[in-house]
Amino acid sequence: MPRYRLLIVDDEPRMTQVLGILGERWGYEVRTASDADHALRELHDFPAEIVLTDLKMPGMSGDELLNQIRSRHPETPVVMMTAYATVKSAVDAMRNGAFDYIMKPFENEELRLTLERAAEYARLKQDNAYMRRELGLRYRMDNIIGESEGIHNVLRMIERVAPTRATVLVTGESGTGKELVAKAIHFRSARATGPYVRVNCAALVETLLESELFGHEKGAFTGATRTHRGKFEEADGGTIFLDEIAETSNNFQAKLLRVLQEGVITRVGGNANIRVDVRIVTATNRDLEEYVQQGKFREDLFFRLNVVPVHIPSLKERPSDIPLLAEHFLKAAIEEHDLPPKRLSEDAIELLKSHTWPGNVRELENTIERAMILSPEQVITAADLWLPGEQNSTGSSGHQRRLAEGQASPREVHIPVTILDKPLGGFLDEMAKIRVLHALDRTEWRKQEAADLLGIDRATLYRQMKKFGISGS
Ligand SMILES: Nc1ncnc2c1ncn2[C@@H]1O[C@H](COP(=O)(O)OP(=O)(O)OP(=O)(O)O)[C@@H](O)[C@H]1O
Ligand SMILES: [Mg+2]
Predict the structure, then answer these.
(1) β-pairing verdict for 308-311 and 100-103
(2) What are the C-alpha distances in Å from 16 to residues 13, 145, 163, 210, 273?
(3) Of 157, 168, 179, which is best to mutate to test ligand 1, by the most ligand atoms within 8 angstroms of its C-beta?
(4) End position of a domain, from candidates 298, 313, 328
(5) Same structural domain for residues 93 and 118?
(6) Is there a single domain that holds both residue 309 and residue 321?
(7) Residue 234 belongs to what H/E stretch?
(8) Which ligand sits closest to the CA of 170?
């Protein structure tokens, strides 16, 4: 048990003296104050975890002191003592947020137990606040990378809206980080220690989506062999993230609207209203307002969901974030794949900045990861990025340019650029094949040099070339 600080406030010096001795004996670090003003000054450099105060004092009363402490240190439990304990004054104090009250004269043991409960409460509050701060910080510091004005706006919005219960609609192109934002909102809210539940609305047909979200009663439909709690019940006390909300049917939208209006759900096949305390965050990469105009999305639901809109700009609109993000993903890949550290060359960074990124941050992440794995050297060059280069000023990426200039082997034409979209099975072979081709290309097909580059011997290189159907030229 840590030593808790206890501030004792009473206008009777004999009283503070006796209580002080008791408090010390029970293991508290004690300070005393003879009136409320004095107590507030003490709290400045003695941030007490617990305050024990008399109710009736000359000058500022214990009630007033309680109010002051509640507004400045809302988490600090305040225990009131009173000699004139009419039920009313005690109840008033409790209603004003006192932690507990105790009537004078009292037994030492009674006071000891009351203070112990207050200490336990202070400890819980601290743990909670600490955990929330930790989680919040982690999500702020590590996860949402960027220093552009656009990202700063998003971070500011998150900060402002997270502590509230407001429904948030996150919009942005695919891969801009909508899910990251949803999580940040949850983990920076008072619900951080409650559940965070994500549902991809596009992944399920209407009927399944309904039973997934609202649950179902036993026998509600064929195959419903037992009662099933839905995601809304699972998320009680926390946050539900409804991803791809635009892809839902009109019928489903009507049901969701009811949850928002009434705060209750009904399981499929049931009729009991189940009250849920859930904060709703939704996301879409569609233009929901356009969907509303086209009659594909209910207008009333749109207004309910769009209480606070958070829009994430596309990566193209904030190229200044690219080097920072690239650096972040480089580090992540090094950790994940246990690779030696590598860095990006100047021209690689330039190419990254000029690419248009239709897949936004996700595409950048994949590009960096691929380059980390495939680049044979410590410095990742523009060519190692395997980006289609139509959009950038150099005209094309390294291998396409060399190909055009007749310097590269035509075999390269068959190298898939979208290798990360492939299933894992063929992926590793494909990756090895690309590495071999890459090394051969770099060394202008001098086998010994290519083998050295790959860190294998010549015989192994020949075996791999044979295996991958690369004929040595
Ligand atoms: N600002 C950022 N900082 C760090 N990583 C990011 C950032 N934005 C996105 N990412 C990463 O990019 C990937 C895509 O992000 P996310 O899944 O949140 O996108 P999305 O907007 O939900 O995309 P979609 O519409 O395709 O579902 C994730 O791996 C995420 O961690
Ligand atoms: Mg997403």
Answers:
(1) unpaired
(2) 5, 53, 40, 63, 54
(3) 179
(4) 313
(5) yes
(6) no
(7) helix 231-234
(8) 1
Tell me the residue type at 154.
V
Tell me the pTM. Answer: 0.60
Instruction: Indicate whether 396 and 455 sit together in one domain.
Output: yes
Nearest CA to ligand 1 atom 13: 362
Q: Looking up tokens 């990469």, which residue turns up?
A: 285
The residues with which 311 forms a beta bridge, in sequence order, are 171
Q: Are residues 157 and 302 in the same domain?
A: yes
244 with 339, same domain?
no
Summarize pLDDT for 90-147 with one digit per residue, the tens: 667 777 788 888 888 888 998 999 999 888 888 877 776 656 555 554 444 448 999 8
Same domain, 88 and 205: no
What is the 300 CA–ligand 2 centroid distance (Å)?
24
pLDDT tens sequence across 349-385 = 999 999 999 999 999 999 998 898 888 889 999 988 9
Residue 218 in tokens: 């036993």
Q: What is the whole-number distance in angstroms between the Cα of residue 174 and the centre of ligand 2? A: 7
Q: Relative to the CA of 285, which ligand 1 atom is closest?
A: 25
Same domain membership, residue 173 and residue 105? no
What angle in degrees, to the nearest 10, is found between the helix axes of 447-454 and 424-442? 130
Instruction: Evaluate whether 161 touches 310 at the Cβ level (below 8 Å).
Output: yes
How far apart, in whole angstroms, are the C-alpha atoms of residue 145 and residue 259?
34
CB atoms within 10 A of CB 146: 22
Residue 137 lies in a domain: no
Q: Is 222 exposed, middle or buried (0-12, 13-18, 19+ CB in 10 A)?
A: exposed
CA distance 61 to 57: 5
Number of domains in the chain: 3
Can you give the residue range of the structural domain that contains 172? Answer: 144-313
